[in-house]
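note to self — DONT lose this again. spent like an hour looking for the file last time. sequence + predicted structure for the chain T wanted, 341 res
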Amino acid sequence: MANKSSENLTVVDTNFRLLVRELALACMRNNPREIAAAAAQLPLKNMAKLEQEIRYQYDSDEVRSVRIAHADGKDFPITWLDIISSDGYRREKALRLLSGPIPSKLLMYFALRRFNDWVPQVRAAAYDTVMDIALLSDPTDVAEALMAALSTWSSWQRIGHYGRIMLLKILAIKGVEEKFVGQLIQSKTGPTSTILTQVSRVDILDAYLHQIATESLQPTLRAKAYRVLLESKTSWVEERKQEMVDKRYSLTRCRTILGDRHVSVNIPWEVLIKEAALDRSSFVRRIAAEKIIASRDYNNPDYLALAHEFARDDSPTVRERGEFFVKRHAEKKSSACDHNA
């Protein structure tokens, strides 16, 4: 079994290297269709490893021979793959020299990653050029690249406030935000609720929150959208700071700094509560149960009816919240009767 597993792993690694090499050669030939076809076979997953592997293959003997054949004098020609070159000068040059629509979502993602580049001059080039590249590119490719970027940008240590704002401005491009929302809603896996939390720093997707709450495939995403709508507020992790607790033992702790803002909601609160209460997922129903408890309106007949439904729910977390509301209603009613007596 061990030999067979090793053999399968070798086959996968070999196929991966061949796909990466095919992309590198397509970029050298500067054929947009070939680039798009080659890049489409590489998923937007494990991006740091993928970028490293592509960079390695770009310097391989086979690709290097093609680069030499296309060389003008002493310099290799600049291609889209140079935005991930190991040479910071070539990364900056690629961003500043290349124009027009970027051929694939993978390369668009690599362009977005330059907001987190370790060289300040490359980050500056990204600030100057990536927006223009995105404006000319396919909105679907840009939206998919943003999905991949936003799922990991909390780990980007060099992006800074301005880089985050630039990413969100790219999301606001006409046509991109609609595609982005569609991908959020249709995503069956992935950290979509985390992505929505990060995007909620600005009001770009506020108008789509109800659609996200009612149509998303992932229960956690629907729950997150309903929570924002019911609270008329959203919050996110601004940054995490390491603080010294005891210098003698070099003990530190992580302090999380949150940001928040108000969200305008035009749909009546009671309508949202009833929708959430009828959702097929216990994640969403639990949000509804929490909110009727938080209202402290234990004598509201509509909330009491919902609480009785929650008390019969299959989910223990929903059921206990429904039972709590019913119990509090009974206590309030008994207290009122004693007072009147």
